């Protein structure tokens, strides 16, 4: 039996709250960011990249608070290659027991052209900014953005400069998800061989998934000597996303014969984090997603089912419980009490405060009156809905009745509470959802466009709860909202209202178009 504790450690750097949150629509509230950071900290993530402090007051506040609260993880903030960004970043992370500044600049020919710096000018900027950061903090990460499309000689030159100026971690980003695994490994090997001082720092790998190779690229980099993997929960991130934390952790666990490294991650917390990130970001996990997809441990074909029943290892390379999926799916019913609910939720990874448990219990009883059996997924949807709607609620659905059927027009009759005052209205529409949404629009006029409307049944059966997610866009600001209910129209209306509540918060925080203006982040200053 292999003693994995004796194996070299690969650090896990989670950037769900920075690179992940950067995906259009994946906006999280302040409280949600704090909650996710706490879960990451408890899970054993070595470094949490908590945000980009100069990007907004909201980002600054979240990074500062996460830094204050973190018990185990190093807390890192992102900064472009200028002193203003770096100072602001330090102001936010300095509260952490273990703070880190992560500063970056695009070094490939395409990226050098944007700030219009030649090779020498950029080299000087790197020297100056890394030196400045190191004078503030002794844990500095530096990234040559678009490293995989940077000339090899120039990459070696700038990495050497950053190391001499005091960087302690050098991250090699495949910013546009362009690399092949063998190239990813080759770059790390080259840097280790050619750059003086390379053996004194940690190399990190940061891969995007545009060609579906992010996880393979990250693992290839580790094989070549990288000792930090940058990743996000569910692979959340811009465009096709980032390396998924759950994939690299489980790949190193299952194929420890090939990659004999260990991480400090408690893998049994993966499923809970995956669900929570999906809920707060509004990005559903695809059913066939590796490790955390709903189908990842389901066996449909007769041959597979037969094999699994005889010996689970015939078709499963890991156990569901390794990622925190409860093997038991005991149905709860209307006679189950508060203690049973608490213990079941704990088993599912939710440790709720008393007042939250009380609210969930009331909703659980109401659901049990309508639905014969309550499954794990029902409870997860219920808790998620409670947590989602726990945030600031300027708009609240008080009452909704709809008339629908083959004979139109469909009608909705609604009471909407706006900032504490009830407003009543009825409206017609092209279907009951349209009628209900029209009521909301008439009572709370806005310009937001509905970009996505998705309905999923949580479990089987016609009495199943529906989870609905909606995505709205207004002046370039993108927000998502979600809700669950056995009544699809109620879930839809609540999801719409939830997105509008987030839009109201977002309007106060960001200038119009900020969600689509990713270029500011790509520049050196
Ligand atoms: O993808 C990228 O290059 C980044 C950098 C800021 C590290 O996210
Ligand atoms: Zn990135």
UniProtKB/TrEMBL annotation:
Pathway membership, UniProt: Amino-acid biosynthesis; L-leucine biosynthesis; L-leucine from 3-methyl-2-oxobutanoate: step 1/4
Keyword entries, A-Z: Amino-acid biosynthesis, Branched-chain amino acid biosynthesis, Cytoplasm, Leucine biosynthesis, Manganese, Metal-binding, Transferase
Superkingdom classification of source: Bacteria
Domain Pyruvate carboxyltransferase: 10-271
Region (Regulatory domain): 396-525
UniProt: Mn(2+) binding residues: 19, 206, 208, 242
Listed EC numbers: 2.3.3.13
Cofactor: Mn(2+)
Metal-binding listed as a keyword: yes
Substrates-to-products reaction catalysed: 3-methyl-2-oxobutanoate + acetyl-CoA + H2O = (2S)-2-isopropylmalate + CoA + H(+)
Signal peptide boundaries: none
Pfam families: HCS_D2, HMGL-like, LeuA_dimer
MF term (GO), any: manganese ion binding
A Gene Ontology BP annotation from the UniProt entry: L-leucine biosynthetic process
Entry keyword annotation includes Secreted: no
A Gene Ontology cellular-component term: cytosol
PANTHER family: 2-ISOPROPYLMALATE SYNTHASE 1, CHLOROPLASTIC-RELATED, HOMOCITRATE SYNTHASE-RELATED
Entry's family note: Belongs to the alpha-IPM synthase/homocitrate synthase family. LeuA type 1 subfamily.
NCBIfam families attached to this UniProt entry: leuA_bact, PRK00915.1-3, PRK00915.1-4
Function: Catalyzes the condensation of the acetyl group of acetyl-CoA with 3-methyl-2-oxobutanoate (2-ketoisovalerate) to form 3-carboxy-3-hydroxy-4-methylpentanoate (2-isopropylmalate).
Self-association state and partner proteins as the record states: Homodimer.
Descriptive protein name: 2-isopropylmalate synthase
Species of the source: Fuscovulum blasticum DSM 2131
Name of the gene encoding the protein in the UniProt record: leuA
């Amino acid at each position: 039996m292999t003693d994995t504790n004796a194996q070299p450690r690969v650090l896990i750097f989670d950037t769900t709250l920075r690179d992940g949150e950067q995906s259009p629509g994946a906006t999280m509230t302040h409280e949600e960011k704090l909650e996710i950071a706490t879960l990451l900290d408890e899970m054993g993530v070595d470094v949490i990249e908590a945000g980009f402090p100069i990007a907004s007051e909201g980002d600054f506040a979240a990074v500062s608070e996460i830094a204050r609260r973190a018990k185990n993880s190093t807390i890192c903030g992102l900064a472009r290659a200028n002193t203003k960004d770096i100072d602001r970043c330090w102001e936010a992370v300095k509260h952490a027991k273990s703070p880190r500044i992560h500063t970056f600049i695009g070094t490939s020919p395409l990226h050098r052209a944007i700030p219009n710096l030649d090779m020498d000018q950029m080299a000087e900027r790197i020297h100056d900014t890394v030196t400045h950061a190191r004078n503030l903090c002794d844990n500095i990460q530096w990234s040559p953005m678009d490293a995989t499309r940077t000339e090899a000689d120039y990459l070696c030159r700038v990495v050497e400069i950053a190391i001499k100026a005091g960087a302690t971690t050098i991250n090699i980003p495949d910013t546009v998800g362009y690399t092949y695994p063998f190239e990813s490994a080759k770059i790390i090997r080259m840097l280790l061989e050619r750059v003086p001082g390379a053996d004194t720092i940690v190399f990190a790998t940061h891969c995007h998934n545009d060609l579906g190779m992010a996880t393979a690229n990250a693992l290839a980099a580790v094989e070549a000597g990288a000792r930090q993997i940058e990743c996000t929960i569910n692979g959340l991130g811009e465009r096709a996303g980032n390396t998924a934390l759950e994939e690299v952790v489980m790949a190193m666990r299952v194929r420890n014969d090939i990659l004999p490294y260990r991480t400090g991650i408690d893998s049994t917390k993966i499923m809970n984090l995956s669900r929570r990130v999906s809920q707060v970001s509004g990005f559903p996990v695809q059913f066939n997603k590796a490790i955390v997809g709903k189908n990842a441990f389901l066996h449909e074909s007769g041959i597979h089912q037969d094999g699994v029943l005889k010996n689970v290892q015939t078709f499963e390379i890991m156990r569901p419980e390794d990622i925190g999926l409860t093997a038991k799916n005991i149905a709860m019913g209307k006679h189950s009490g508060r203690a049973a609910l608490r213990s079941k939720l704990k088993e599912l990874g939710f440790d709720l405060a008393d007042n939250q448990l009380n609210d969930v219990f009331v909703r659980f009883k109401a659901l049990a009156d309508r639905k014969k059996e309550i499954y794990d997924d029902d409870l997860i949807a219920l808790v998620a809905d409670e947590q989602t709607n726990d945030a600031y609620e300027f708009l609240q659905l008080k009452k909704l009745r709809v008339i629908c059927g083959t004979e139109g027009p469909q009608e909705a009759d609604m009471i909407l509470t706006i900032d504490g005052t009830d407003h009543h209205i009825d409206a017609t529409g092209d279907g009951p959802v349209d009628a209900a949404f029209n009521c909301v629009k008439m009572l709370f006029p806005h310009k937001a466009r509905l970009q996505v409307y998705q309905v999923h049944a949580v479990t089987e059966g016609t009495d199943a709860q529906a989870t609905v997610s909606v995505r709205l866009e207004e002046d370039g600001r993108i927000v998502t909202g979600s809700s669950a209910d056995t009544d699809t129209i109620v879930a839809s209306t609540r999801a719409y209202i939830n997105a509008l509540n987030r839009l109201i918060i977002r309007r106060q925080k960001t200038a119009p178009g900020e969600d689509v203006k990713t270029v500011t982040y790509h520049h050196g200053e």
